Amino acid sequence: MKLLRIDSSARRNSVSRHLTARFAEAWQQEHPEGEVIERDLATTTLPHITDEWVQAVHSNPATLNADQKQVLEISDALVAELVEADTIVIGAPMYNFAIPAPLKAWIDQVVRVGKTVLFAATGPQGILTGKKVFVITSRGGAFRPGTPTERFDYQEPYLRHILGFIGLTDVTFIHAENQKPGAQAELAKAEAISQIEHLAGGAAHSAA
Ligand SMILES: Cc1cc2nc3c(=O)[nH]c(=O)nc-3n(C[C@H](O)[C@H](O)[C@H](O)COP(=O)(O)O)c2cc1C
Questions:
Q1: How, if at all, do strands 35-40 and 2-7 pair?
Q2: CA nearest 1: which of 26, 23, 25, 30?
């Protein structure tokens, strides 16, 4: 049983990191034998997609030369982490109404034809089925349905779509909103923690 914990905040003392750590702790309590794999995107330098990368992913894997294999090395490693995980928790701060660039760079490396998505006659078919995903966001403002700014949430709709595109359709969002200094932030964090403790236990039971 494996949990993949992904963090993408630039800040070391970050709300989303604190919350993914709480999730991992709760999950580990439920799974004393389980393994937590940590992938910190603030300290993993991911290259942008290049012409060489695109050519390599569209080549027959059996004919890749040494340079092409090297171009795909980090992508292969990140895809392997996803394939091996039963549960995935992603810490996603809101940056400029969307996701941090390192998280987008990670997505670019793991959306791979033949590895995480197939293009069938009926359209794209995600390969990474049967996994549970939890996305923990932290945001300065509030963007939930019913708020005046809900239409500016380019985080949850995008992440839901792209994760579903590679087969990760069982996705639960936990939002820690109003993370400006003050009482509201503390309250929102406490609410997120109580959801996390409940869900990390639930995830453990349904994946067992
Ligand atoms: C570069 C940057 C851009 C941000 N953009 C937004 C934004 O568009 N909307 C918002 O509500 N908060 C925004 N914030 C506030 C963060 O979402 C908030 O501080 C959150 O807690 C950051 O997550 P972290 O604590 O895990 O780093 C931004 C913060 C930074 C550093």
A1: parallel
A2: 30
Check if 130 has its Cβ closer than 6 Å to any atom of ligand 1. no
Q: Which residues contact 26 (CB under 8 A, 6 or more apart)?
A: 196, 197, 200, 201
Which CATH number applies to 2-207?
Answer: 3.40.50.360
What atom of ligand 1 comes closest to residue 10's alpha carbon? Answer: 27
User: How far apart are alpha carbons 54 and 42 in whole angstroms?
Assistant: 24
pTM: 0.96
Which of 29, 34, 38 minimizes the C-alpha distance to 2? 34
pLDDT in tens, 106-147: 999 999 999 999 998 999 999 999 999 999 999 999 999 999
CA 28 to ligand 1 centroid distance, Å? 28
Q: Is the CB of 175 within 6 Å of ligand 1?
A: no
pLDDT confidence of residue 44: 96
* Cβ atoms of 192 and 134 closer than 8 Å: no
- Residues with Cβ within 8 Å of 169's Cβ and at least 6 positions away in sequence, in order, are 126, 129, 163
**DSSP codes joined into one string, 6-28:** EE--S-SS-HHHHHHHHHHHHHH
Q: What is the pLDDT of residue 204?
A: 44
